[in-house]
Amino acid sequence: MPPLPPVTKALMLACTAIFCLQFLLGGYALTGWFGLWPLASGHFMPWQVVTYAFLHGDMLHLFFNMLGMYMFGAEIERLWGQRRYLQFIAASVLTAALSQMLITALAGSMGPTIGISGGLYGLLLASAMLFPNRTIMPLFPPIPMKQRTFVLVFGGLELLQGLMGFTGVAHFAHLGGMLGAWLMIRYWRGQPPFSGRRRW
């Protein structure tokens, strides 16, 4: 296995270290200040649109997000370089946060959102756009499929579950992360809704 590139490694270490701190201090101690709270809750602070991504609910939540960062993030960082990769992750995390804030405002939800899943879904979309015909074997379901198909299925399931009101998972934050990823790549390529070709 090749060594992890620096930004992916730093993100994974930060998420893991903060999860350990959550465990030591009690989950709510950090979530109260750094989780993403709805605007109407009275607990929202501007820094939460970034800090929420470094918190996780349990070991399984952390494990699958870190596995995804390892599988998809490391390769994309090697391809794009540290600066562009960090910009991309930031865009996905921020659009995931804004999407979740909009949905919680419409639904009247008052609970916090945590996890870097929005950034991970952005990486999934980027990987599918860069390598659409690569065959992968997902854990669920264990069926070989093209990467483009895998991401379309995952995106469709997230939308369906979000519309059906499945709780406990920030489905629209995941979709927001994918939207931010798509917009960032379109911006770099100078494609609509952006104009003027940039260096890709």
Question: Topology, please?
Answer:
Layout: H1 6-25, H2 27-34, H3 48-51, H4 59-80, H5 82-107, H6 117-130, E1 135-136, E2 145-146, H7 147-163, H8 171-189
Antiparallel strand pairs: 1-2
GO cellular component, one term: membrane
Membrane topology: Multi-pass membrane protein
Subcellular location: Membrane
N-to-C span: 28 Å
Which structural class do the helices and strands define? mainly alpha
How much helix, percentage-wise, in residues?
Answer: 55-70%
Q: Judging from the principal axes of the Cα atoms, what is the shape?
A: globular
- Low-pLDDT segments, ≥5 res: none
Q: How would you write the strand order of the largest sheet?
A: 1-2
* Overall average pLDDT: 89
Tell how many strands the DSSP assignment holds: 2
Please compute the radius of gyration using only Cα atoms.
Answer: 17 Å
Question: How much strand content do the residues show?
Answer: under 5%
Query: Helical region count?
Result: 8
Sketch the major β-sheet: 2 strands, antiparallel
**Secondary-structure element pattern, one letter each:** HHHHHHEEHH
Transmembrane segments: 53-73, 85-108, 114-137, 149-166
Domain Peptidase S54 rhomboid: 45-185
Membrane topology: Multi-pass membrane protein
Pfam families: Rhomboid
